[in-house]
Amino acid sequence: MVLRMAPFPSGGLHIGSARMIFVNDYYRTRYRGKLLLVFDDTIGSEEKRIDLALFDVILRDLEIAGATPDAVYYKSDRIPLFYPWARRVIDRGGAYVCRCPAELLRENRAKGQACGERAQTPGQTVDEWEKMLAGGYAQGEAVLRLRTDLHDPDPAFRDRVLFRISDLDHPRVGHRYRVWPLLEFSWAVDDIELGITHVIRGKDLVMEDRMQEHLWGLLGLHGPPFLHWGLLRLREAKISKSKSYLEVKSGQYDGWADPRTWSIASLDRRGISPEAMRKFTLSFGLSLADIEVPAETLYAENRAIIDATTPRRAFVEDPVRVDVDEYPPGLEHVPLANHPEQEHLGRREVAAGPGFWLPRADLARSAGAEVRLKDLMNIRLPPDIPAGAAGVRATFTTRENRKLPRLQWVGVEGAVPVDLLGLEGEHRSGIGEGALAQAGPRDIYQFERVGFVRVEADWRPGTGPVRVVFGHP
RNA sequence: GCUCCCGUAGUCUAGUCCGGUCAAGGAUAUCGGGCCUUCGACCCGACAACGUGGGUUCGAAUCCCGCCGGGAGCACCA
């Protein structure tokens, strides 16, 4: 079994590409086949530009996803290979060189009308084709078109363009070629040349199946069967690839791993395991319906994978200093379990009061009430807590574990500043318990009552606030 | 407008090819309860679906036809 993925290098791989990645990889693994990555970097268009930096971004995304290809090809290296194939199609009368403007071509297609050029003999087409290749036509002046039935019931199928002329500068091969194949033709050739046995691709390309089969029929060949999947979207990820591209390029976004892109890399950065992405994606099968799934479903998948192995830590957002009067002796430090159920994850010694940091939002809600500092003690808060209060004095009540509102807390001693990057790209500052000072890059923690977070890959102890990215609740 | 594809609970999905074992299973969400010192986990329970109309049949989610709804294509993009 030989499969292929064919992304266009105009953006990082996003969650919508997940089906391409995981479905293909699933079959490769299951049938011990090969999975090729073929960059579909024919020249594109003015609107759809190739970005050199994106080849590596995509490669890296596939690595993250655990779907490293067995081989990598660049369509732009293979252009000369397509010319002899074009010649074979022409010789069989399957194509003609058309000099109609795009506008006229479109109108004729809609009406099922032939233009004057269509009557060309293969001999005349060869001459015109040679002229195209030799530079005898300017960009947009001539194309090689497939000859189908002009009255084909599907207007989309009538006399499609196979090759066109482009003077755009290609980031890999520059101006080495002027006559470029379109996706359909290049794949009619490469699915044969590369020995692809099964084509699994998006349903936006179903019409291309017919074109490839038409070409194969013309040449007496048999190509691989086609399978398709429908569009997959996360409800929260409204952003398009091209919009992301602009934001990343302009620096509005923090690269392709910015949480707002919902790219594979961004999910990884947030601590969502590739395994969760895989299970999530494969759970949809190969359905042809376009689906929109809440990110919560992906989060649930991830929780099931990471919850049991993820240590708990205290984080207090927008902290207010609270000093507790009548603080009981001997509670300056307490041992806490790293995980409520997984004892093998051990314990850590946590600095407690009498000075604490508590979340401003919780304090505002609980003024005058007795609250429980989780795992520690109960305190009574003063009746009045001004909105901008810098410090608050509270009073110890009991240690008895009663049903009280529970707050997480951070003891003042050894507390470390934390910068939490949120899903909208916002930075939430807070303070974390001392144990976080020894966090390692890419470590995953659960901030109790906040959610799962992952330490930034480039963070090192002693370099300022602990930088983490919010994953999910 | 033309062509193709898709319609099972809020969402996603199993079942449809080969009609009965489907008074439709699972996941997620929601609601209620329990439990662990998290708003997380776990346990128990509840809610909730075959788009619609006809036909075939002893029997239809499943086969046929119409309609309705949704998506994609009709680029010298991929």
Write a structural description:
The chain is an alpha/beta fold and 473 residues long. It has 3 domains: 2-77 and 186-297, 3-Layer(aba) Sandwich (Rossmann fold), CATH 3.40.50.620; 79-181, Glutamyl-tRNA Synthetase, Domain 3 (Glutamyl-tRNA Synthetase, domain 3, Alpha-Beta Complex), CATH 3.90.800; 312-472, Ribosomal Protein L25, Chain P, CATH 2.40.240.10. It is 27% helix and 25% strand. It has 12 helices and 27 strands. The protein has helices at residues 18-30, 53-65, 79-91, 102-111, 122-133, 183-193, 206-219, 241-250, 264-269, 274-282, 295-306, 360-366, and strands spanning 2-5, 34-39, 71-74, 95-98, 143-146, 161-165, 179-181, 199-202, 226-229, 232-234, 291-293, 312-313, 315-317, 319-325, 333-337, 347-351, 355-359, 370-373, 377-380, 391-396, 406-407, 410-411, 416-421, 427-432, 444-447, 451-455, 466-472. A 7-stranded mixed β-sheet has the order 12-25-26-27-23-24-13, with no helix packed on it. Strand 23 and strand 24 form a beta hairpin. Helix 1 packs across helix 10 (274-282), helix 6 (183-193) crosses helix 7 and helix 10 crosses helix 11. The protein is elongated, with a radius of gyration of 30 Å. The chain binds one RNA strand of 78 nucleotides through helix 4, strand 6, helix 7, strand 11 and helix 11.
Task: Quickly describe the structure.
The chain has 473 residues and is an alpha/beta fold. It has twelve helices and 27 strands.
